[in-house]
């Protein structure tokens, strides 16, 4: 079918009152970023809908990108027809023949924005219903819960027809909730936490700690590739790699074994907070799940969180591991996450870390470190790259993908 437009319906934006226009503008910008590879599109945001005129672009390819844009409730591929009922009948029959199988039930639902059009909504419904009774007698009219709804929109410029209503990604447009830093490891949990934060409108930047030579280029590439899996939801994501070797070596030589993980996580949190303050971040997001590992007991969280007053958002904190894995599979990060490249969280891990670290002891052991100097040298070595969701970017990194797979 030669669709001419995709009609996008907003999700929670309908509840935003005076801020509604700002949310619509943000969604418009995000859709534009997501569809930047389709130069012939025309995107027109309206108060209740966003209209994407295809102008010959591939509808399926455009909808594949739209499916990952948060803030969209549903969308429908549509056909534009002149306001000539003979042409409308022809287009309706073509559309129904292609998209509605034999024996299915249907109804006609008309919206009329152009009140100068000769037929009102009821007359249009009856006219098209009678036409389909004659030309598709195999179909059953059913007003409540039909298999398909023929949606007809009479606008000033033309009439638009559609039979599909596709579920969008829901949530809020990315960027409407401000910026946060995601502590991205190479594991299963942090990409899922990032997905949920993006869904609530949070604009994320990834913070990834690396400790060469203990962590490999493969581990770094894995983290970048995980970011490419999340990038389509945001258009692009800044990836911040933080050198952590000196800090980990210093902690290992100075801090008792049971407190290595606790003090290490405090330094990670301090560095993430420092980056957030430099870059306009308002919060920190991580993939901690209560009780899953030693550093994620409530007692450990108290000892680690002690270093910051910045809000820490833990989207997967109360989820079971099986629930987290299911989401990771849905967003296509799971297979990457389970690849066996060690990251900063696993090297130097003591055999028996404290599950209930004492806060006063933690502060004391950390006081033996030159925290300010260690942090400054790490921040001086930060590297930032921009990771996009485009196929061009993916093609450029086929060597990395091949290495991982």
CATH class of the largest domain: Alpha Beta
Rg, alpha carbons = 26 Å
This entry's quaternary arrangement is: single chain
Topology as a string of helices (H) and strands (E)? EHEEHEHEHEEEEEHEHEHHEHEHHHHEHH
CATH topology of the largest domain: the name is Rossmann fold
Helix and strand content put the structural class at: alpha/beta
CATH superfamily assignment of the largest domain? HUPs
Give a count of the beta strands, DSSP E runs of length 2 or more.
15
Shape: elongated
- CATH architectural name of the largest domain: 3-Layer(aba) Sandwich
Task: Summarize the amount of helix as a percent range.
Answer: 40-55%
The largest pleated sheet is described as:
9 strands, mixed
In total, how many domains does the architecture comprise?
2
**Which ranges are low-confidence, i.e. pLDDT below 50, for 5 or more consecutive residues?**
391-405
Q: What's the mean pLDDT score?
A: 91
Distance between the termini: 37 Å
How much β-strand is present in the residues? 15-25%
Number of helices: 15
Enzyme class: transferase
InterPro entries: Rossmann-like_a/b/a_fold, ThiI_AANH, ThiI_fer, ThiI_N, THUMP_dom, THUMP_ThiI, tRNA_STrfase, tRNA_sulfurtransferase_ThiI
Keywords: ATP-binding, Cytoplasm, Nucleotide-binding, RNA-binding, Thiamine biosynthesis, Transferase, tRNA-binding
Family: Belongs to the ThiI family.
Give an overview in words.
There is one protein chain. By secondary structure, the protein is of the alpha/beta class. It folds into 2 domains: 5-167, 2-Layer Sandwich (VC0802-like), CATH 3.30.2130; 179-403, HUPs (Rossmann fold). The chain contains 15 helices and 15 strands. α6 packs across α15, α7 runs antiparallel to α8 and α8 (260-279) crosses α9 (298-305). Mean pLDDT is 91; it is low at 391-405. Residues 60-165 form the THUMP domain. Keywords: ATP-binding, Cytoplasm, Nucleotide-binding, RNA-binding, Thiamine biosynthesis, Transferase, tRNA-binding. Its main location: cytoplasm. Belongs to the ThiI family.
């Amino acid at each position: 079918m030669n669709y001419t437009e995709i009609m996008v319906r907003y999700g929670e934006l309908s509840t935003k009152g005076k801020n509604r226009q700002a949310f619509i503008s943000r969604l418009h910008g995000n859709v534009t970023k997501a569809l930047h590879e389709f130069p012939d599109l025309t995107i027109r945001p309206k108060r209740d809908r966003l209209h994407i005129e295809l102008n010959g672009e591939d509808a399926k390819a455009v909808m594949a990108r739209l499916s990952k844009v948060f803030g969209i409730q549903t969308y429908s591929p549509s056909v534009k027809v002149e306001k000539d009922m003979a042409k409308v009948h022809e287009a309706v029959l073509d559309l129904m023949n292609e998209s509605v199988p034999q024996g299915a039930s249907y109804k006609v639902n008309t919206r009329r924005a152009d009140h100068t059009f000769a037929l009102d909504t009821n007359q249009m419904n009856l006219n098209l219903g009678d036409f389909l009774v004659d030309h598709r007698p195999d179909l059953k009219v059913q007003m409540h819960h039909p298999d398909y709804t023929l949606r007809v929109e009479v606008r000033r410029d033309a009439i638009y027809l559609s039979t599909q209503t596709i579920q969008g990604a829901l949530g809020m447009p990315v960027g409407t909730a401000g910026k946060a830093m995601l502590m991205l490891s190479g594991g299963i949990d942090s990409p899922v936490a990032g997905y949920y934060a993006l869904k609530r409108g949070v604009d994320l930047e990834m913070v990834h700690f690396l400790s060469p030579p203990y962590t490999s280029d493969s581990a770094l590439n894995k983290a970048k590739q995980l970011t490419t899996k999340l990038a389509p939801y945001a258009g692009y994501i800044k990836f911040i790699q933080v050198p952590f070797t000196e800090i980990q070596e210093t902690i290992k030589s100075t801090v008792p074994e049971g407190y290595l993980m606790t003090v290490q996580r405090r330094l990670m949190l301090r560095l993430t907070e420092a980056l957030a303050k430099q870059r306009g971040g308002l919060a920190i997001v991580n993939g901690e799940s209560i009780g899953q590992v030693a550093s994620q007991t409530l007692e450990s969280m108290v000892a680690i969180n002690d270093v910051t007053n910045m809000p820490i958002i833990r989207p997967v904190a109360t989820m079971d591991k099986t629930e987290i894995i299911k989401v990771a599979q849905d967003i296509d990060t799971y297979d990457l996450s389970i690849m066996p490249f060690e990251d900063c969280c696993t090297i130097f891990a003591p055999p028996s870390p404290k599950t209930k670290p004492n806060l006063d002891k933690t502060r004391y052991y950390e006081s033996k470190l030159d925290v300010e100097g260690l942090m400054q040298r790490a921040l001086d070595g930060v590297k930032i790259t921009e990771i996009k969701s485009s196929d061009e970017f993916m093609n450029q990194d086929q060597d990395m993908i091949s290495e991982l797979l």
